């Protein structure tokens, strides 16, 4: 009887407050989470091998990156852009967690990825930005990755020391100048000799991630890899 009452109550809540697909806004059913089955199948996944290795070219040998992995391609007016926008600007924590889980599950099934990690480090945001927004979406993604990969997330070992304007409309050189010295490793002893992965939502020019890598290398990290939910071509 209790099970029946609980099920009836959940169905009533769902009737008035349905869970919608973040991609197409249709109702989710059964085991669907975050995205409906159709939208999830339509995600422009970045395959292993050559497509993933091309992402390393964004860093052009300027700093040592051990590997880069992104879950899907980011294009304007695409389903991936809608997902990132809802997570980043509308505070969809569950979506961030789910994307991180899917990404981690896919990585766990891949063979030949040179991945070894002791911790996940979400790209930090400035304290003023956190006050404005109330959250850091990269931490949600790292939480999801942690759940599916069994690697601890450490949002406490890096900080952003300067509050700067949005990078969205800047080119690569402008982005690099904007973020070159805005990150700091707050717990170098935790990082020293460790294999770390930096986690972010989107890889575009790579300037922000590159700035983080420089600081982690200087702190003595043994290897530094990157995982993002999306990447531009």
UniProtKB/TrEMBL annotation:
Gene3D superfamilies tied to this protein: 3.40.50.2020
Domain Phosphoribosyltransferase: 169-231
Organism superkingdom: Bacteria
Family recorded in the similarity comment: Belongs to the ComF/GntX family.
Protein name per the record: ComF family protein
Species this chain originates from: Fibrella forsythiae
Organism lineage string: Bacteria, Pseudomonadati, Bacteroidota, Cytophagia, Cytophagales
